[in-house]
Structure to design on (977 residues):
């Protein structure tokens, strides 16, 4: 059965939410991606993806406290739901299964 | 910057996004400096302007809107229910308008799509031939049959050439007990299936059309011939002579094709087979014999101009340089795009079966549709404006409670949309139900399925939306604009709108009166053409088509029958739209003029009551011992050739292919439908061309005679199919266009009057109700009921009368234009204008009285008590 499918960027964001734990909100996620993956992401793209993931039920959100660096605005902190965790695990296993199919010789040959 | 974000961003998301943006901005300032950070911030904000963010708000907006919309709908429904009369008037008027418009749209849609469904329609051209004979030009859609071969071998850049030979009323025999005449048979080359888009459902179409005497039947024809049996391989007899094998079935051709064939027959070089009885001759060699319609499909790269040039070389070589062509005759060929032939009603026409329709007619119908619809819209507008006064109170209260201007406008638009959509739905129903009778009147073939086509659906819906907006926006704006304090006093608005209302009433009644006048004119013209003295007898004459060449025994039997006065053989009646035209001149050298050549025997004159002025009626046109042909001519011919008085002319000769002698002169008679003036005509005997028996019956004949005639016919021509027609029926059929136009136009006029009167009724009842108090006070002060009635009626009769006055010059122009089409127009008299105008004023008077009488009779105490 074709289950709900996650895009590459969606998967990335979902992973980041899981990784950042208590600190998972829009700006932090985009910063983390920029520093760790050296990948330029746009804030709006991150937000849209977060909303979409929330719609799909993989993450949930609550308003957190404001800090001075945000001019007192509150953050929306995201946490991964159990469905989101399951999804991440399924995707990881699928990835590994596929890796096993790749002939190792060819890789080392490169 | 962030204001922009706040504007488009959903409120519940705004705070965190703003926070994230600020956080990023602060970081950017540290890393990149303030200018660059600002630029980045700007860019980030702009990037947030995306559906994923903006549309997240929709949920809340929709929620808000539906509640408001439901509220609007509820209020509108309440209001519509309360004002039953005006709602009824609104819906009736709009429904009529939309229905007419819908029909006009369907009609135009069908006409404009003619022949464009073929895949390569843009590259298909019809070849027409143009002939000139002593100054007279003949534009023919038919071409000589060898033309196709010449094009095939000599012309570059042509993908396909195809000939199509139309056959008229061909006798078909399925078996000896099942014989009938079949219309719309087409003999074609096999390329026909390549050039035109035709679905062959079973059998190999190309193979069938390449094999002699094979046929493709349309589905409907196959069903008509063989019922539910498989038609393939069946054999039927064509014109009592050829056995045709059915080799395939094609899908019925659509109604918007100029060649609606029921049967396609393969092309066989056989003179009898190809001859359709309607061949034009401009000489006695194949290239001067016009029989086939020729179509070419050009290669994509071919320029039609070069084809034109090459074609004229072909025509020069084969026609004008032919050794045996008459030097007075010149022929050449032209090409015409397939898509244009349906609109060419001036030169070549739409082909053998479908009458072309001029663009100006299409414009006219479009205009009528729009006019009727505008009348309906005017009503709507007019009534809404009139009611705006009462609505103003409602609007004021809404404003006081806190409604915004936009919401007010929206509410009134909702009402107008409710009405338009309801009328639209009703119109579809009406059109659906009246499709059949309208098809009969228009002789069209609309199918109800047309309503379901996406083009029609989308256009209809879009127009309804536009219509609802147009009709509703003015009253809505007007009400919404009014200051709430002033709206408590309704008179401010009512004063300002009265000129507008009157203007609209004037427009409506001008249109109605003009249409009524034109309808009356056409009725008179048709009536006049029916009673005008044609110079010949038209009652009690039965024309019977002969079933074979041996007509004498049949005629003799007819003469024995009780009730038959006289019988004559001829090619056609003296009045016909199917005469043969030739040229005549004083002698061989002098200038030629066209003449109508009528073929009939010596009894022809007494059957049709033609008056012999001088000379005699020859028993035979030519004797065995002399080669001279004796003819009877009309007075007009004497005038055309300067042959003097009827008495002087007898015995004189003139040139008609040969020198002919005038044996007698008959008084002028109309040889053609009354659109045309009397033309020079000659009557000559030639037994070989007679195709009908003309039977003069006793004035009070019993119906037995007609049965007896049919029995006699069947005995003499057992092979054929009996066809008969009374002359006066045939004459009526000449004026079918007029009667069709008349029935359509009277329908339009009727609708226009109904719509206008509905509008008037609405306004009258409204305004009168508003003046009830004024009337009551007048009564209290001593005015009588009749005083009041005059006062009220006057107010409304004034615009109607003005409209009638405007309508007179407008319709005068229309009437003159229409009459210029007839050689025998009726005289324009004053009563032509006075009768419809008076009638219209009378009708509107009745409409006005409904409400005004009631108001003027009310007891003032009842109305004044309230305050």
């Amino acid at each position: 059965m074709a289950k709900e499918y996650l895009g590459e960027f969606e998967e990335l964001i979902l992973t980041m939410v899981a990784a950042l734990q208590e600190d998972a909100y829009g700006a932090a996620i985009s910063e983390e991606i920029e520093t760790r993956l050296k990948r330029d992401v746009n804030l709006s793209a991150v937000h849209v993806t977060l909303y979409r993931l929330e719609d799909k039920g993989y993450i949930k959100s609550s308003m957190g406290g404001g800090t001075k660096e945000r001019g007192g605005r509150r953050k929306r902190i995201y946490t991964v739901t159990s469905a989101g965790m399951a999804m991440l695990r399924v995707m990881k296993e699928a990835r590994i299964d596929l890796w096993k199919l790749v002939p190792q010789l060819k890789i080392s040959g490169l | 910057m962030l204001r922009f974000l706040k504007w488009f961003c959903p409120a519940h998301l705004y705070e965190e996004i703003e926070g994230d943006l600020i956080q990023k901005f602060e970081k950017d300032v540290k890393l990149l400096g303030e200018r660059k950070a600002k630029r980045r911030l700007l860019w980030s904000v702009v990037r947030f302007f995306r559906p994923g963010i903006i549309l997240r708000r929709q949920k809340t907006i929709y929620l808000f809107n539906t509640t408001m919309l439901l509220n609007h709908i509820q209020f509108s429904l309440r209001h519509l229910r309360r004002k039953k009369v005006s709602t009824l008037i609104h819906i009736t008027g709009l429904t009529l308008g939309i229905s007419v418009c819908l029909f006009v749209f369907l009609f135009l849609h069908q006409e404009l799509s003619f022949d464009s469904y073929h895949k390569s329609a843009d590259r298909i051209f019809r070849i027409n031939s143009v002939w000139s004979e002593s100054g007279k030009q003949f534009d023919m859609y038919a071409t000589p049959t060898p033309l196709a071969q010449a094009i095939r071998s000599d012309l570059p850049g042509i993908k396909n050439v195809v000939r199509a030979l139309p056959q008229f009323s061909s006798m078909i025999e399925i078996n000896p007990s099942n014989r009938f005449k079949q219309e719309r048979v087409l003999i074609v080359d096999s390329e026909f299936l390549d050039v035109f888009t035709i679905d062959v459902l079973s059998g190999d179409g190309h193979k069938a059309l390449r094999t002699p005497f094979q046929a493709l039947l349309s589905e409907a024809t196959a069903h008509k011939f063989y019922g539910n049996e498989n038609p393939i391989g069946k054999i039927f007899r064509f014109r009592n002579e050829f056995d045709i094998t059915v080799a395939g079935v094609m899908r019925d051709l659509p109604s918007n094709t100029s060649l609606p064939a029921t049967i396609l027959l393969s092309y066989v070089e056989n003179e009898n087979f190809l001859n359709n009885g309607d061949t034009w001759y401009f000489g006695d060699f194949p290239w001067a014999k016009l029989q086939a319609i020729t179509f070419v499909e050009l290669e994509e790269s071919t320029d039609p101009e070069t084809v034109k040039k090459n074609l004229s070389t072909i025509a020069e070589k084969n026609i004008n340089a032919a050794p045996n062509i008459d030097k007075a005759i010149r022929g050449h060929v032209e090409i015409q795009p397939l898509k244009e032939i349906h609109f060419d009603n001036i030169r070549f026409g739409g082909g053998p079966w479908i009458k072309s329709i001029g663009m100006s007619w299409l414009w006219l119908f479009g205009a009528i549709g729009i006019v009727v619809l505008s009348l309906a819209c005017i009503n709507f507008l007019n009534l809404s404006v009139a009611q705006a006064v009462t609505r103003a109170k409602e609007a004021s209260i809404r404003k006081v409670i806190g409604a915004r201007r936009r919401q007010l406008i929206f509410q009134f638009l909702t009402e107008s949309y409710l009405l338009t959509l309801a009328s639209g739905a009703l119109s579809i129903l009406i059109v659906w139900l009246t499709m059949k009778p309208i098809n009969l009147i228009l002789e069209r073939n609309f199918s109800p399925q047309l309503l379901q086509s996406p083009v029609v659906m989308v256009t209809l819906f879009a127009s309804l939306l536009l219509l609802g907006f147009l009709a509703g926006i003015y009253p809505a704006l007007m009400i919404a604009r009014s200051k709430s304090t002033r709206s408590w006093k309704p008179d401010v608005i009512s004063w300002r709108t009265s000129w507008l209302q009157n203007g609209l009433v004037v427009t409506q009644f001008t249109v109605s009166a003009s249409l009524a006048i034109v309808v009356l004119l056409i009725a008179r013209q048709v009536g006049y053409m029916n009673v005008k003295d044609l110079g010949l007898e038209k009652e009690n004459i039965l024309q019977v088509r002969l079933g074979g060449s041996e007509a004498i025994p049949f005629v003799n039997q007819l003469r024995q029958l009780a009730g038959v006065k006289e019988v004559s053989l001829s090619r056609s009646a003296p009045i016909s739209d199917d005469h043969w035209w030739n040229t005549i001149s004083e002698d061989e050298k002098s200038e030629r003029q066209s003449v109508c050549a009528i073929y009939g025997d010596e009894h022809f004159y007494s059957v049709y009551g033609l008056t012999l002025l001088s000379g005699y009626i020859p028993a035979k046109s030519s004797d065995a011992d002399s080669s001279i042909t004796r003819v009877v001519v009309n007075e007009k011919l004497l005038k055309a050739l300067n042959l003097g008085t009827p008495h002087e002319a007898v015995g004189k000769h003139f040139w008609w292919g040969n020198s002919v002698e005038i044996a007698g002169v008959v008084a002028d008679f109309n040889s053609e439908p009354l659109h045309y003036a009397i033309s020079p005509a000659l009557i000559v005997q030639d037994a070989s061309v007679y195709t009908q028996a003309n039977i003069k019956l006793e004035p009070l004949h019993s119906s037995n005679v007609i049965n007896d005639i049919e029995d006699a016919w069947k005995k003499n021509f057992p092979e054929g199919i009996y066809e008969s027609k009374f002359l006066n029926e045939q004459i009526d059929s000449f004026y079918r266009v007029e009667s069709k136009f008349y029935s359509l136009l009277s329908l339009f006029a009727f609708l226009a009057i109904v719509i206008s009167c509905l509008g008037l009724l609405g306004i009258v009842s409204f305004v009168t109700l508003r003046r009830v108090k004024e009337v009551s006070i007048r009564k209290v002060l001593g005015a009588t009921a009749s005083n009041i009635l005059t006062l009220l009626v006057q107010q409304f009769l004034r615009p109607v009368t003005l409209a009638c006055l405007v309508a007179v010059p407008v319709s005068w122009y229309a009437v003159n234009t229409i009459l210029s089409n007839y050689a025998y127009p009726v005289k324009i008299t004053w009563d032509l204008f006075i009768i419809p105008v008076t009638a219209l004023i009378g009708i509107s008077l009745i409409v006005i009285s409904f409400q005004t009488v009631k108001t003027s009779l009310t007891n003032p105490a009842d109305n004044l008590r309230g305050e």
Notes: Confidence is low (pLDDT under 50) at residues 58-63, 487-497 of chain B.
